[in-house]
C-alpha cells in the first residue's frame, strides 16, 4: 500500500522517563518559575505585547531676537532676524550668526593678492599672467607689486580690496545666546492614524508667550533660549560663537496609545555634532560668505560679509505602540523554547558526578540504549574435494576458492568441535545461537 510504503500511516513519539525524586522535582519547578518570571518581566519591560509604528514628522522654526553690534571699519549696526539668519537654510534646521568679518566697498580691479593665498615675488618674472587656482582670489596679471613694507606679491584681477582680516575675538554677536527659537513639530503614526504636535492641547496662547524650555520646570515648552540649548549640549556659547559649529536638537516621541496607559509626550535632548577642537580638524567651525551690492557713480561695488555662526539641526525620532493579540501570541510562542533549558540542565546534572552514582547509573540505563555496530562476519567454506573446513574472511573482490584461509578444521559432528568452530567464525552471533546451530547437527554456513 502507498500509505505503508511512504510511512504515512505511522506516528513516531519520544520515549519519556519519569524520575521520582523530590530534589529533582523541586529544582525543575524552581527553574521553570525563574524562566517564567524572566519572560513576564521582559514582556512588560519591552512591551512585547504591542504592535509598533515609526513616526513621520515635519519641523518648522521661528527665531526671534535683536542685537546691536559694532563692526570694525563699519560702525554700529542693529541686526535683527533677517540679518543674522542669513541665506544659509536647510531642511529641519536654522542658522544664527554669531561672528562676522565685513569688507566694505569692493570694486572690480587690480590689487596685490593676500597671503597665504598669494605668491611672494621679487620681479615680474616670478608671476605668471592668467594663472589662478582654487585658493586664489583672482587671476594673475603678471605683475609683481608691493603688498606691504617688506613683501611683494603677484597682482591679481579681483574684487578689491581683498578680504584680509581674522575673525574677531570675542565674537561680535555673543549676545545671540539670549535669542529664542520656537520649534513646531507635527508628527503622525500612519498605522494607527494618530496625529499630534509638540504644542500640547492643554497649552494656551498666554502660556506660550511667557514660557521658556526648562524655565520654571517646564520641560514641554516649545520655545528655547539659544544659550540654554548650547549649555544643555555641554558647550560654552561664548567660545563656540567665535568660529561657529553645529548643534543637534533631538525630539524623541515614545508613545503608548493604549487607553489605560495612554502617553505621548516629546522628550528633548541636545548634543554637539561637529568636531569642536581646532587643533584636531583642518577647517573648524562653520562659516559662509554673502555680499550686498550697490552702484555708486555708475560703478558697481559690494560689501562682503563672512559669517560665522551656529547651525541647529532638529532631528525627530519616535515610535508608538498599541496592544496586539497577534504580537502577544508570537512572543509567547517564541519564549516557550526557554523551558528546554531546564531539561538540558537536569540531564547534565544527573549525567555528571554532581548527582549520586546510583541515580546516575539507573537513569542512564533507563534513558539510553546502547546498540553496537554490526561486525564483518567470517565464512566457513568446504569444498567437495577437500576433507577440512576452511575459515575465510568474506571478500567481494576474490572468489572463495582463491581466498587464503585463516584456519583449517577437521570435519566432526560432535558438539565440542562445533563450539570451537563457531568461536573461530566471529560472526557476531551470541554463544546461545552457536550452541543451537551445533545441536542441529551442522552449522549454518554457506557450502560450496
TrEMBL record:
The answer to whether the entry has keyword Phosphoprotein is: no
The glycosylation sites are 178
Please list the residue ranges that the record marks as compositionally biased, kind Polar residues: 427-440
Give its localization: Cell membrane; Membrane
What residue intervals traverse the membrane? Answer: 29-45, 328-350
Keywords assigned by UniProt, alphabetized: ATP-binding, Cell membrane, Disulfide bond, Glycoprotein, Ion channel, Ion transport, Ligand-gated ion channel, Membrane, Nucleotide-binding, Receptor, Transmembrane, Transmembrane helix, Transport
One GO BP: response to ATP
Q: What is its main location?
A: membrane
A GO CC term assigned to this protein in UniProt: postsynapse
Q: Where is this region: Disordered?
A: 427-448
From the UniProt record, which GO molecular function terms apply?
Answer: ATP binding; extracellularly ATP-gated monoatomic cation channel activity; purinergic nucleotide receptor activity
Catalysed reaction, written as an equation: Ca(2+)(in) = Ca(2+)(out)
Q: Which cysteines are joined by disulfide bonds?
A: 111-160, 121-144, 127-154, 211-221, 255-264
Show where the P2X purinoreceptor 7 intracellular domain sits: 380-435
Q: Name one Pfam family in it.
A: P2X_receptor
- Residues recorded as binding ATP, renumbered to this chain, are 62-64, 180, 287-289, 306
How this chain sits in the membrane, per its record, is: Multi-pass membrane protein
Q: What does this protein do?
A: Receptor for ATP that acts as a ligand-gated ion channel.
Entries under NCBIfam families matching the protein: P2X
Report the family membership. Belongs to the P2X receptor family.
Q: Which protein are we looking at? A: P2X purinoceptor
Amino acid at each position: 500500500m502507498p500509505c505503508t510504503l511512504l510511512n504515512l500511516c505511522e506516528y513516531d513519539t519520544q520515549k519519556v522517563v519519569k524520575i521520582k525524586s523530590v530534589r529533582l522535582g523541586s529544582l525543575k519547578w524552581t527553574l521553570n518559575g525563574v524562566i517564567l518570571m524572566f519572560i513576564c518581566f521582559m514582556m512588560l519591560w519591552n512591551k512585547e505585547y504591542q504592535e509598533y509604528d515609526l513616526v513621520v514628522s515635519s519641523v518648522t522654526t521661528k527665531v526671534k531676537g535683536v542685537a546691536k553690534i559694532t563692526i570694525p571699519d563699519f560702525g554700529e549696526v542693529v541686526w535683527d532676524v533677517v540679518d543674522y539668519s542669513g541665506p544659509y537654510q536647510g531642511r529641519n534646521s536654522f542658522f544664527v550668526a554669531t561672528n562676522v568679518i565685513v569688507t566694505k566697498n569692493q570694486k572690480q580691479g587690480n590689487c596685490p593678492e593676500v597671503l597665504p593665498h598669494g605668491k611672494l615675488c621679487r620681479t615680474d618674472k616670478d608671476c605668471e599672467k592668467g594663472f589662478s587656482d582654487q585658493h586664489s582670489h583672482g587671476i594673475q596679471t603678471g605683475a609683481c607689486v608691493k603688498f606691504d613694507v617688506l613683501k611683494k606679491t603677484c597682482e591679481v584681477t579681483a574684487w578689491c580690496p581683498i578680504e584680509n582680516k581674522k575673525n574677531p575675538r570675542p565674537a561680535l554677536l555673543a549676545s545671540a545666546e539670549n535669542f529664542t527659537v520656537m520649534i513646531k513639530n507635527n508628527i503622525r503614526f500612519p498605522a494607527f492614524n494618530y496625529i499630534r504636535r509638540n504644542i500640547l492641547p492643554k497649552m494656551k496662547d498666554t502660556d506660550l508667550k511667557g514660557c521658556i524650555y526648562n524655565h520654571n520646570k517646564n520641560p514641554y515648552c516649545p520655545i528655547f533660549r539659544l544659550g540654554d540649548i548650547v549649555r544643555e549640549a555641554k558647550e560654552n556659547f561664548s567660545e563656540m560663537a567665535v568660529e561657529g559649529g553645529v548643534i543637534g536638537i533631538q525630539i524623541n516621541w515614545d508613545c503608548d496609545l493604549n487607553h489605560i496607559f495612554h502617553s505621548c509626550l516629546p522628550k528633548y535632548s541636545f548634543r554637539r555634532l561637529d568636531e569642536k577642537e581646532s587643533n584636531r580638524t583642518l577647517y573648524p567651525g562653520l562659516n559662509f560668505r554673502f555680499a550686498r551690492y550697490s552702484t555708486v557713480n555708475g560703478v558697481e561695488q559690494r560689501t562682503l560679509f563672512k559669517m560665522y555662526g551656529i547651525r541647529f539641526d532638529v532631528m525627530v525620532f519616535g515610535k508608538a505602540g498599541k496592544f496586539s493579540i497577534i504580537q502577544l501570541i508570537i512572543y509567547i510562542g517564541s519564549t516557550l523554547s526557554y523551558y528546554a533549558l531546564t531539561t538540558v540542565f537536569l540531564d547534565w546534572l544527573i549525567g555528571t558526578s554532581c548527582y549520586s552514582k546510583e541515580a546516575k547509573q539507573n537513569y542512564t540505563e533507563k534513558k539510553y540504549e546502547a546498540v553496537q555496530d554490526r561486525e564483518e562476519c567470517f565464512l566457513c567454506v568446504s569444498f567437495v574435494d577437500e576433507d577440512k573446513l576452511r575459515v575465510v574472511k568474506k571478500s567481494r573482490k576474490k572468489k572463495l576458492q582463491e581466498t587464503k584461509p585463516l584456519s583449517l578444521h577437521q570435519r566432526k559432528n560432535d558438539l565440542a568441535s562445533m563450539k570451537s568452530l563457531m568461536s573461530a567464525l566471529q560472526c557476531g552471533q551470541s554463544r546461545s545461537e552457536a550452541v543451537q546451530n551445533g545441536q542441529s547437527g551442522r552449522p549454518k554456513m554457506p557450502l560450496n
